[in-house]
Write a structure and sequence with these properties.
Blueprint lengths: L7 E9 L19 H13 L6 E9 L7
Parallel strand pairs: 1-2
Length: 70
């Protein structure tokens, strides 16, 4: 943001359902097992701690398999 002289930004996070991941995918085991609400709270705290004059809004985009209820 600083090199671009941008004072406002969006931090977009993709949230994928680990239960739907291929068990053979080694990335599955490297992802922390946390709740989406906890991550949103942590990102909100980080955004609030930015220096004066910078505004960042963290957005979590839930990426679900089509047709799945959760």
């Amino acid at each position: 943001m600083v090199p671009l002289h941008a004072q406002v930004g969006i931090y977009l996070v993709g949230w994928f359902d680990m239960a739907k991941w291929d068990p053979e995918d080694n990335r599955r085991n490297r992802v922390p097992n946390v709740q989406i609400q906890d991550v949103q709270a942590q990102l909100d705290q980080q955004a609030a701690a930015l220096p004066q004059g910078f505004i960042v809004r963290p957005i979590i985009l839930e990426c679900r398999v089509p047709g799945s209820a959760n």
